[in-house]
Amino acid sequence: MSEKETAYTNKADEFLQMFRKGEEFTKELLKENEKLRYRIAQLTETVQRSGDEARTKIYENRIQLLEEELSSLRERFMQVEQENKDFASKYIEVEEENNNLANLYVASYQLHSTLDFSEVLRIVLEIVINLIGAEKFTVLLIEDKTNELVAVCTEGMAMSEAPKVKIGDGTIGTVAKEGESFFAQDLSNVREFNPLDPIVCIPLKIKEHVIGVIAIYKLLVQKDGFTNVDYELFNLLAGHAATAIFSSRMYTQSERKLTTIQSFLDLLKEKPRR
């Protein structure tokens, strides 16, 4: 082999070695590139996951805040609803009390609008029935001569069933003597009727002077008890009714006396002279 051929052979070997090295380097680059791509993919997935978790965490926090706000709003709504119910209940109570007071005002005006004794008693009966809700009761006045309580009018019972009571005897006599109202614990409408045992007994008073009582034995079916307004009505009724009854009775007695005197005078005038 000549020197030239030897030189070419050596160069060819060198070139092949360089080519092989380049090929190996390229393969190593490809492997590194593959690793980098895989790492980039992992990192990308990690970033995406971390981003999703962060967003999920934010959403969870927002949901929790919204739930807390909703719970707070529900509690506030329940409080407002309860307040509305309380206001409605108070409004009904006030309206009922105003109606009762208005009715009592009208009744009081009616009581004092006449001096006719029978008319006053009729008005008293209507008041006790409509405002108090009594079904069976009687009005008794004190007779000065006998010092007894005698019925002057009744409702739901005959006059013959009404009691005649001495001052200080039993519930009715005690109320007339002491001037304090009596309310039985049992207001049942099914209790046996006893003219000496009323469920309510109200004194008719002019200042501290008792002129009679209202004895109630039975309430209307729809009336199962008394409210605070009822007790106020009892007190107001006792005073107004007592004044009206006393005034009309005195006026009626005076009218009768005047009529008697006038009749006697007329008889004297008509008597022939001797």
| Overall number of strands | 6
Helix/strand class? alpha+beta
Span between N and C termini?
A: 211 Å
Low-confidence stretches: none
Task: Please state the overall shape, judged from the principal axes of the Cα atoms.
Answer: rod-shaped
Structural summary, described in words:
There is one protein chain. The protein is rod-shaped, with a radius of gyration of 53 Å. 65% of the residues lie in helices and 15% in strands. It has four helices and six strands; from the N terminus they run H-H-E-E-E-H-E-E-E-H. The chain has a six-stranded antiparallel sheet with strand order 3-2-1-6-5-4, with helices on both faces. It has two domains: 1-111; 117-261, 2-Layer Sandwich (Beta-Lactamase). It has 274 residues and is α+β, with helices and mostly antiparallel strands.
